[in-house]
Amino acid sequence: MLVRRVDxxxxxxxxxxxxxxxxxxLGTIFAERGGELFVAAPPDREKELVELLDDLAREIDARVHxxxxxxxxx
Length: 74
Prior knowledge:
Layout: E1 2-7, H1 13-21, E2 28-33, E3 36-41, H2 46-59, E4 63-64
Antiparallel strand pairs: 1-3, 1-4, 2-3
């Protein structure tokens, strides 16, 4: 599973969740607290996930953290 940490304003959590749900199984979202989220996707959809997160970074000022190194939980 491919996991990316994404920080958004708490008011944008529902928006991001809706976008992922509309993206035909691209990924799922897990909330740490408030706007601290983790987005998980199958490895074969990495390109689509990166494109979506890049768009969100521009549109809603989301902060997408770099991918965790191998062997790391996050």
